[in-house]
Amino acid sequence: MAGTWGIDNWRAEQIYMSFFPVNLQAIRSVLAGEKIKFHVTPKLRQEGSFLHLIKPQIAIIILTLGGIIFSFIKLFMGWSSEMGGVIMNSYWGLLNVALLMGIVRAASMEA
What we know:
By secondary structure, the chain is mainly alpha-helical. The chain is extended and about 55 Å long. It has a domain at 50-111.
């Protein structure tokens, strides 16, 4: 960790978080003993919206935001008294949402 002080690694974190479905699929393939498939990507620029390709990421964003809202409702209704836990989990949830927004923006960009 000390060797990366001062080096911006935001983009690397975005890529890691955004491709979690691919990572999970690779782990499943290895554990099942399947041959790992690699689909060649087109080299020409494509136009349009590709939000259908990132449904898992969009689902995680929606579930995370819903969980944050629910935790604050629980806190303000008196069903929970863990203010520190709600704030810390909200911070990490919002960080993950911010990281995942990179792939959402990339999939929704028009050329």
